Amino acid sequence: MAVVVWKTLSALLAVxxxxxxxxxxxxxNWDSLDARPIPEWYEDAKLGVFIHWGVFSVPSFxxxxxxxxxxxxxxxxxxxxxxxxxxxxxxQDFARDFTAEFYDPDTWANxxxxxxxxxxxxxxxxxxxxxxxxxxxxxxWNAKDVGPARDLIAPLAESIRSNTDLKxxxxxxxxxxxxPLYLQDQANNWTTQDxxxxxxxxxLYEIVNAYKPEVIFSDGEWTASSDYFRxxxxxxxxYNESPVKDTVAVNDRWGNDAKCQHGxxxxxxxxxxxxxxxxxKWENAMTIDKSSWGFRRNARxxxxxxxxxxxxxxxKAVSCNGNMLMNxxxxxxxxxxxxYEERLRQMGTWLDINGEAIYSTRYWSxxxxxxNKDVWYTRxxxxxxxxxxxxxxxxxxxxxxxxxxxxxxxxxxxxxxSRELTWTDTGSEILVDFPQRDLVSSDWAYAIKMVxxxxx
Length: 456
What we know:
glycosidase, Putative alpha-L-fucosidase, single chain, FUC_metazoa-typ, Immunoglobulin-like, alpha/beta, seven-stranded parallel sheet, disordered N terminus
């Protein structure tokens, strides 16, 4: 009876939340904007793919901050330029070699679908200011005017929507390192807003109306306030009037007063993974290359996260109420390197087996087990099951759980194994007996489902 009541209340709350999101008029202040619920699809999705692609993919050295590193005399970048390019070569000269001749959006969509991700976020414009679409506000510094000579966003958006069940999203940088309007506003101590009014804000309206992204990942917020960037005004329009007003999910990087405080889900800092519960929905935006978000020609295998390391990050994030947005950097030609494709497909293989313990789950009363640092918990949305995910194969085939109590008639099953598991309550912990490892189809982390479990 209690389960039935709980399900009924949950359904009613979901309906009320959806109705509020659709009918409530949001005002351009943080109290009002912060009241908007996180879209349930985003709560359920857990995993997204991030794509950093731009002119920085041409030098493909050091990182996507190549231009800034060069201008600030980073010794590695200066040495690289002196050794490989003639005097007088400018960053803008790289753009003609951003060719994207092997860019196949259908291939990308297939790889992303195979990863088990539920949304994808493409950099529409990074801090260099170059736009991947033919923006009316980025004359001669966009993918139509220089480089690929075409819109790079539209075909990926179409392929994602036509060929997968993923949501399509866009990243957009509020700042541009060397835009004269931005530098003049900065010199005026942000008392003028010429850059915002003539460049970055019109771009945001432009990409929302043109591509209808269901994720907007804002970045470049650290130099000025949300008032300078007019972020609250934009978000009020986004939530009230835009073509994605009922479904769009946004992050928190809307000004140096907003990060980890306001907006939608929290990114806070890159590679956020607190290891403890954050009740406000959050996301670990991280990259498979340990040092760069953009493609690096000189990256070594040791610079690439293993599938075990990715799952470690992912499982911890989901257990603690987070999503994970894992980044790949395509080449200037538009190729996703095989090592990135392998990692994405490995994630999908694991999720094909263990996805029930991840998708549409919610955080439990315990995140990390009291006695076993390698075990992390989630629960089903209807509270009918608790999942324990062990990041390693248990020693002596016996999984120790110090935070769980099991009812006498409780059932314990292991994803990737067909039989029910036996278990023992010692009075202080639960011991779950695992089968021979070669009988389990999951190769990395191991998830069990417990029906009849409560916290100890």
